[in-house]
UniProtKB/TrEMBL annotation:
Family in the record: Belongs to the carbamate kinase family.
SUPFAM superfamilies: Carbamate kinase-like
Entry's Gene Ontology cellular component terms: cytosol
Organism field: Levilactobacillus suantsaii
Biological processes per GO annotation: L-arginine deiminase pathway
Organism placement in taxonomy: Bacteria, Bacillati, Bacillota, Bacilli, Lactobacillales
Pfam family, one: AA_kinase
Protein name from the UniProt record: Carbamate kinase
Domain of life: Bacteria
PANTHER family in the cross-refs: CARBAMATE KINASE, CARBAMATE KINASE-RELATED
Listed GO MF terms: carbamate kinase activity
Amino acid sequence: MAKIVVALGGNALGKSPEEQLKLVKHTAASLVGLVAAGHKVVISHGNGPQVGAINLGMNFAAENGKTAAFPFPECGAMSQGYIGYHLQQSLQNELHRQGIQKDVATVVTQVEVDPSDSAFQNPSKPVGDFYSQADAAKIQAEKGYTFKEDAGRGYRQVVPSPQPKTIVELNSINHLIEAGSLVIAGGGGGVPVVKTTTGLRGVPAVIDKDRSSALLADKIAADQLIILTAVDDVFVNYGQTNQRALRHLSAADAHRYIDDGQFAPGSMLPKIEACLDFVTSGDQRSALITSLDHLDDALAGKVGTLITATAVNATV
Ligand SMILES: Nc1ncnc2c1ncn2[C@@H]1O[C@H](COP(=O)(O)OP(=O)(O)O)[C@@H](O)[C@H]1O
Ligand SMILES: NC(=O)OP(=O)(O)O
């Protein structure tokens, strides 16, 4: 029996509630499969597209005098509730269908960041939808948002993405795991907060959920970190005619490919770095990157990229 953190990608969760619920229902079957096999499972998820959509809607309503302004950290907390709700419901339905008695709970999670993190001066985390270069330039001029090209897929608004330091609700998460619950935590990388003289305060940023998931996996002493995204494997020469799937990546190989610029910053690079942090900071740990659709195949070793500290195979 292993303790596994499964991180679901925000971009892999679809663009609408209907799409998300359909995708989450499908993934719930595989996640409950892990539970049925006796593993302790903690689920985290991204929120880039979702927090961007919520923020856009709230800004529109506020600009038109329909609501008060809702600050960005509040939008992050809403995204945790929205995605957590779909995950909870789908997991509960699937557990019920398979006749498994287990509680499911989402923990609204705050993650402490350093207010002097240089990321606040260099927005890099894509949120919301994709725009053409011309539309992005127009919105940038009108609203002052920053846009950047996202891994060949178009232009997206970017916000600061500071490093996660401490998971505020870690004790509660551990209590729930030990009590046998299936826990959803660290959604959207956690709502970023800083310590002030009067206590914690939310800051407008989006923490990379892969980095937070690696921190969570380390702090709960997990055996494996599984990152589910939109691609079945990590590739070299990604998007080119000669792209090649990497089925097993040792830390040494991963560093070589990073130096070679094989993993796009803001998308695949933080996933690889998070996996490396996790597998190299404890013994017998492994990380797996694959698509939301193919978790079962990846667990059976048919697809996916397995990352280990050394070149030795290490599976759950
Ligand atoms: N070397 C690579 N191999 C595979 N995918 C890559 C690579 N470099 C960039 N990508 C892109 O990274 C994406 C995953 O990052 P992202 O969309 O940010 O993930 P998520 O939102 O699911 O966490 C893939 O769908 C792919 O478009
Ligand atoms: N918070 C975060 O990393 O979201 P994505 O997975 O959508 O990029």
